[in-house]
Amino acid sequence: MALDLVALERALDALPQRFKGPGGVAGVVHEGRVIARRAWGFADLNARRALTAQTLLPICSITKQFTCALLLDQIGDPAVLDAQVRAFLPDFTDPLPTVRQLCDNQSGLRDYWALTVLHGAAPEGLFRREDAAPLIARMKTGHFPAGTAYSYCNCNYRILSDMIEAGTGRDLGDLYAERIFAPAGMATARLLPDTRVNADGVVGYEGNDEVGFLPAVNGIHWRGDAGISASLDDMLAWEAFIDATRDDGTGLYRRLTGPAKYGDGTPASYGYGLRHDVVAGVKTTGHGGALRGFRAHRLHAASERLSVVVMFNHEAAASAATAALMEAALGYQSPDAPVVPVGWDGIWLDEANGLLVRTVQDAGGVVLRYAPSPSRLTVAADGVARGGGVTLTRTGEGLTMLRPAENMVVRARALVPGGAAISGRFWCDEVQAEMVVESRDGALFAGFDGMLGQGPMERMYPVSEGLWVITTRRSMDAAAPGDWTVLALPDGGLQVGCWLARGLRYRPL
User: Fold this and answer.
1) What's the rounded Cα separation, in Å, for the pair 472 and 495?
2) What is the per-residue pLDDT across 182-236, written as a single tens digit (0 to 9) for each?
3) Predicted pLDDT at 475
């Protein structure tokens, strides 16, 4: 189909002002050709080193689809490796996830990104390659039965990486280069697992125009979960390769985009490291990525033979940027006129998962805080708030949240603000780590001690009777994995959880 190139150029011109930060790159591929390619700003502000379309940037969690592609290429049927899962989870008492469930983020495992907080990691600390396996091996249960729901989990792809190397006897980086990067023409892409070593002297930045931009420090050793770096030109080559192999039923991307489903047969919208979504009125596959100081996102609309890639060396919403470019290229305008929300400010408790839900209204709609990142929803004429695949409905004194991408229906009850201070030391048998809560003249703080050390004290706030929230704004990786909800238990213990690591029980010491 014909694209609206004028609107696309306007949307590209707007990116540096709309998504403010040190630098970014963006590109569009249509019918196998690069039709737009932009690079602005600086890879290093202090060195005045320009950011270009050839600068290597971390693609963060976009790495996951390449790991799954290697699995299909080198191993074939994921079920062949199912018997090996036990070696990574020796003490797991729940039914083990299958390898396909690892690929589809249906394992129910708690994410080690979140667990580093509970293990006392310093925000700028070092998480070595050899730290991952023992942390994962401590898990005894999942936060839901494998195959019943979706939850983002880097552990899944860490396990897959080790399985691929063990099964092939080869280095993961060499396999990416030979089996994916070379055939796709990704000339400079490579596995760079140590995030302390930035490719091409690029610096990732935290901050904004209000507080300034400061170099971000990330000490996590990533693998097949978020370890690849690539230039914009590399990523556009990948999109062109997808188009060139679109009719090849044995092609890697065709195989990656096959249907996924939950254990009960319900279709799933995430599979093999790819999210299936509708953007600008068309079906898309893609993925985003976030490390401290970096954001990346890619989208592919097969029916339109259209792909969009955006990468920033700062923490603006790359997903919103790709959506804006695709909407502009396709001439898309939302058919729903939003209304000004009324009565949406509130705090709620998802009792089934033990998680706090917060909603804040403003002139543009409703901001939902529940999962790792806040979601912006708009309220339609029917009084329902929608956005980002989430639907919120007020039901009397409660709130119903539909999250079809996660195969979840959340029913939350309204909370009355209040609460009191607590203090004490608590131990989690599941995590094998300690939590310390201190009250100092009305100010509450919580700290975590575990296999990674003694973490910083974090602010802890009473929300309602028997419920508190810990606002961990700077964990080891990018924006921390959502606020931690702390619930008082009848036995004097606490239940602690966030979206990526739910339902952890701490007993008093």
Assistant:
1) 17
2) 999 999 999 999 888 888 999 999 999 999 999 998 888 999 999 999 999 999 9
3) 72
Asked if 103 contacts 82 with a C-beta cutoff of 8 angstroms, the reply is no
Domains, the chain, ordered by start = 20-108+144-330 (3.40.710.10), 346-414 (2.40.128.50), 424-508 (2.40.128.50)
Q: By the 8 A CB rule, do 256 and 272 touch? A: yes
Selected catalytic residue, list 20, 61, 261, 373 = 61
User: Between the CA of residue 52 and those of 21, 24, 29, 72, 317, what are the distances in Å?
Assistant: 15, 8, 18, 33, 20
Which residue, 407, 441, 428, is CA-closest to 495? 428
Does 481 have pLDDT greater than 70? no
- Angstrom distances, CA of residue 102 to CA of 166, 177, 213: 17, 23, 36
- From the centroid of its chain, how far is CA 302? 23
64 is catalytic: yes
Contact 345, 32 (CB under 8 A): no
Instruction: Give the pTM.
Output: 0.95
Is 283 one of the annotated active-site residues of the chain? no
What are the φ and ψ backbone dihedral angles of 240, each rounded to 5 degrees?
Answer: -65, -35
Q: How far apart are CA 317 and CA 312, in angstroms?
A: 9
Catalytic residue among 64, 151, 229, 375: 64
